[in-house]
Design a protein that fits this description.
Length: about 220
């Protein structure tokens, strides 16, 4: 079953609440990311929870293991459903985070969907799928899931002890511009390829009828189940 996470990429609690009011009863999961959390802190998490929503705290933790342990503990205290951290932080960081007793689900960010082979060429990376595969294998003993482009979903079908939860940002309805995203995919394609969650922000937030767009995404996903 593929779920929709709506990205609350807005700059204030007022804007976030307007979205939550319009989507109440349609959407259950929301992403609180860097913009909203920087502006409003844990009040943003509490607001989503007051509306009955589950929070994906997408702050992409990456630091020395002790620091990441501390922030994962704080995320656990907030009661968020899941939190993101960069797999690039290494196995010692990932293992330390995974050992926090009361913590959210940990989803590892592999390669941002705004990057492509041209960007990664500076690091002599010629194949993004191979890089994502290597990063995913590095974190498989410590993480519940991964955040990756829909174009890399196929690599998780084999070679893992068990299928991780797969979270796909860069989701765009057919015909919607990709903007600064490079490796995009439609909701239906993501569901068909095994995504557990799709993350969408701008197509919903920019609409005069966000609930209609969100429901359309859910209907498209449902057809692929």
């Amino acid at each position: 079953m593929t779920e929709l996470i709506v990205a609350l990429d807005v700059g204030s609690l007022k804007e976030a609440e307007e979205v939550l009011q319009k989507l109440k009863g349609v959407v259950s999961f929301y992403k609180v990311g860097l913009r909203l959390f920087t502006a409003e802190g844990k009040k943003a998490v509490e607001l989503v929870q007051r509306y009955g929503g589950q929070v994906f705290l997408d702050l992409k933790f990456m630091d020395i293991p002790r620091t990441v342990v501390d922030v994962v503990m704080e995320a656990g205290k907030m009661g968020v459903y899941s939190a993101s951290l960069y797999v690039w932080g290494g196995t010692r960081m990932l293992e330390a985070a995974s050992l926090v007793v009361q913590r959210p689900r940990l989803w590892g960010v592999t390669v941002l969907t705004s990057l492509d082979e041209e960007d990664l060429g500076y690091f002599h990376v010629r194949d993004i799928k191979n890089l994502v595969r290597d990063l995913a294998h590095m974190g498989q003993n410590f993480l519940e899931g991964y955040v990756c482009s829909g174009q890399e979903l196929s690599i998780f079908q084999n070679g893992f002890k068990q299928k991780p939860c797969l979270v796909v940002p860069g989701i765009r309805p057919a015909g919607f511009p990709a903007e600064d995203q490079r490796r995009v995919i439609t909701p239906g394609e993501a569901a068909r390829m095994g995504a557990d969650f799709v993350v969408m922000g701008r197509p919903i937030l920019a609409s005069a009828e966000p609930a209609k767009i969100a429901q359309g995404v859910l209907d498209e996903i449902k057809k692929e189940r």
